[in-house]
Amino acid sequence: MGKALIIGCGGVASVAIHKCCQNSEVFEEICIASRTKSKCDALKEKLQGTTSTKISTAQVDADKVEELVALIEKFRPDVVMNLALPYQDLTIMDACLATRTDYLDTANYEPEDTAKFEYKWQWAYRDRFREAGITAVLGCGFDPGVTGVFSAYALKHEFDEIHYIDILDCNGGDHGYPFATNFNPEINIREVSANGSYWEDGHWVETKPMEIKREYDFAGVGKKDMYLLHHEELESLALNIPGIKRIRFFMTFGQSYLTHLKCLEDVGMTSIKPILYEGREIVPLQFLKAVLPDPASLGPRTVGKTNIGCIFQGVKDGKEKTYYLYNICDHQECYREVGSQAISYTTGVPAMIGAMLMLQGKWKKPGVFNVEEFDPDPFMDALNRWGLPWQEDRHPVLVD
Ligand code: NDP
After folding, report:
1. Rg of the chain over CA atoms, in angstroms?
2. What domains can you pick out in the chain, each with its CATH number?
3. pTM for the whole structure
4. To test the ligand 1 pocket, which listed residue (18, 35, 80) has its Cβ within 8 A of the most ligand atoms?
């Protein structure tokens, strides 16, 4: 059916690439392009005897628009899947505009020198994408991603109006290290060490990092402490879910993770301000990333499950109702299937599904969109088919 250019070859990209190769009918041809070409070649080597998807590889510095344009013009993909880092979102969108190619990513742009992610940078491309007649799908991982699809599905099938959404992201996995992050350490630490916030009655309420803590009993995992964080999809859902009164996002963290993070913060290791070390500028957080375990290496040692989903409260036919949609994913099952842990899996599978729907023409309209602005039904069916089956609870315990 089509050709996808996949940029990045880390934890998330590796899963998406495995999934594209399981879905050769749609992904007839893929090109894996990243900064370190040897990683792309190794993955190609592993997969090419097992799939009828034709795989090629390329070296690209995705910070450079002209390199990206040259690659896109050479490979001529139908869609570019940006699975590198958020810092590359705008250069890749620029290259897609220059070549009139559809675009998808899993994380919104943030400038490297300011730890503040928001959609304004990418929403500023709306007119240009519309005028060029191409589609950009933003934030198509699990959260953001599936959480937006769940919200669109709940609104379409379960509610006349949704008033409250609590997004709960639980990782009950244990990798055996005292401290490691499940996806890119730099991005992860920037996210969790920032102030928290939630959307209520038309404005943002800001909290100190980890200030709001709750305990929740997660299906398939058990009781965990979770903390309120700011998260990307709060911003788009606040706009796209009419009548919404409050949206919050909670993520679970173990005590060891928090104690280590606090210590690293206290000694300045999570800072993104460059310092001079032996005559050379280094960013402490980037140095920390270099000494922490590579998230892609956690696969074989992580056991346990994730449970990520959304609790909705609202009205249907004049009556108040609650509804919980979630997915449980087992780290070891993911590892057996694609050689990765569940955090990469739960992000890489939705990225493949989003790109598939774009190639099939089901998610295609000119402009820049968040996932909840498309029809959720084909995505929900695909989640069940491609490894992230969802479950419903019509009487969930609510978060106070
Ligand atoms: P990794 O660090 O494992 O992989 C990033 C990849 O991008 C690496 O292959 C890296 O290359 C490549 N890369 C970095 N800079 C460039 C560049 N300038 N040019 C070309 N390639 C580059 O990250 P993850 O796979 O864990 O995360 C990928 C993305 O997914 C991130 O944006 C993250 O925020 C997002 N994410 C989204 C989630 C969601 O649910 N929506 C959840 C988890 C992650 P190299 O190998 O040379 O370093």
Report:
1. 20
2. 146-338 (3.30.360.10)
3. 0.95
4. 35
